[in-house]
Amino acid sequence: MATGIKLRRPDLHVFVATGDGDCCSIGAGHWVHTTRYNPNIVVLMFDNGAYGLTKNQTSPTAPKGFPSNTQPRGAVLNPLNPLTGTLGITNASFVAQTADWIPDHLYETISAGFHHKGLAFIRILQRCPQYTSAIYAEAVRDPNLTQLLVHPNGINIDGIKEIYKNHVYHDPSDLVEAHRHAADPGRLLLGLYYQNKSAPVLEEVRAVPSRTVEEKIDILNQELDRYAV
Asked: Are 202 and 37 in contact (CB under 8 A)?
């Protein structure tokens, strides 16, 4: 849908709001192929580890052992990692992670994604107040449990660097290091994991000349005339 909007109306600024279930389960095909085509959109993936709107089923990102209505004894599989998943897709061009309880970082990350040319995939760690508020409870209380990726080409942390003091220097152009950071399950690491400004963008690859209404009708009539009997 978002890809179609950009092809039809390239002048629009498109923001896609999706959840961990929507993106990583029923919409996984769209996630993979839209990332590969790299249209100029911002994807906000809100990850609370559950199907909150449909009353607490286990989602692909639910922590192993976390109970839900569909798996009351706890999720039986290790969670899917949206960061490593996106980084592994051909032509991924912007992959970042932020959190809903750090509004300054959330704003700066979305702003960076908006100014990126191509698909900006932003995973937002989100607390569901009804079902999964406990998942990030310790990190909310203790800033020392959160690490920030820092780099001149990364996310601006000026507003929070005195509160969140654990910094990890990371060049977002380094895809190998981005994978390494994203694959570590024991760290809560926020920031810009990867950015490739030279990745082909769908609107540029599929660019067509601008036509007037009259020119479009003429082209359409010429095509229909080919099949006239």
From this structure: yes
Domain boundaries, the chain: 2-225
Return the closest-CA partner of residue 96 out of 122, 124, 61, 125: 122
Q: Give 27's contacts (C-beta < 8 A, 6+ positions apart).
A: 18
For the stretch 136-160, pLDDT in tens is: 899 999 999 999 999 999 999 999 9
Q: What percent of the chain has pLDDT over 90?
A: 63
H helix intervals, the chain:
2-8, 20-21, 28-37, 82-87, 103-114, 137-141, 175-182, 202-205, 213-225
pTM for the model stands at 0.86
- The structure tokens listed for 158 are 């000026």
- How far apart CA 56 and CA 51 sit, in angstroms, is 5
171-196 pLDDT, tens digit each: 999 999 999 999 998 889 999 999 99
Fold classification of 2-225 (topology level): Rossmann fold (3.40.50)
Q: In 10 A of CB 25, how many CB atoms?
A: 16
Distance of CA 190 to the CA centre of its chain: 13
Look at residues 198, 51, 31 and name the one whose alpha carbon lies nearest to residue 123.
31
Rounded distance, CA 117 to CA 129, Å? 34
**Residues contacting residue 107 through CB under 8 Å, at least 6 positions apart:** none
